[in-house]
Amino acid sequence: MDHFPNNWGNPRSEDVDSRVPHGVTQIAVLTGTSVIGVKYKGGVMMAADNLASFGSLARFRNIERLHKVADFTVLGATGDLSDYQYIQHLLDSQMIKEYSADDGHTLATPNIYEYLWRIMYNRRTKMNPLWNTFVLGGVHE
């Protein structure tokens, strides 16, 4: 048996499990932690810290994890920051698409929640989940 990894070569295609897509994130690398949302009589208040950790190393201290999605909706995220940036991009693209339709309709908080829920569920069923937990707050009617 050859014990030198450099001599092993690449695996044959029948040895590779085709059910697991390449590039699936197994763990969150750069993470954020605390987000809190409080509902009160006049609306919703949300807060988050600005720290992003690389493992146990407090690496970045100026990361904003609250994102204004619509006029009356804010999204807060914990977990992997690259996945959060992906969600921000999807939500911003959807809001631009709604604005460009110029039909007078805008997405409200329940619509944004439904869209976000479908994104998370879709990725989870494909065994490539987004490593985030979201707090969505907003005022609707």
TrEMBL record:
Record GO biological process: proteolysis involved in protein catabolic process
Compartmental location: Nucleus
PROSITE patterns for this protein: PROTEASOME_BETA_1 (PS00854)
Gene3D superfamilies: Glutamine Phosphoribosylpyrophosphate, subunit 1, domain 1
Classification via InterPro entries: Ntn_hydrolases_N, Proteasome_bsu_CS, Proteasome_sua/b, Proteasome_suB-type
Record bears the keyword Iron-sulfur: no
Main location: nucleus
Keyword Cytoplasm set for record: yes
Lineage: superkingdom: Eukaryota
One Pfam family cited in the UniProt record for this chain: Proteasome
Entry GO CC: cytoplasm; nucleus; proteasome core complex, beta-subunit complex
Keyword vocabulary terms for this entry: Cytoplasm, Nucleus, Proteasome
PANTHER family named among the record's database cross-references: METALLOPROTEASE TLDD (PTHR32194), PROTEASOME SUBUNIT BETA (PTHR32194:SF6)
Protein name, entry field: Proteasome subunit beta type-7
Gene: PRE4_1
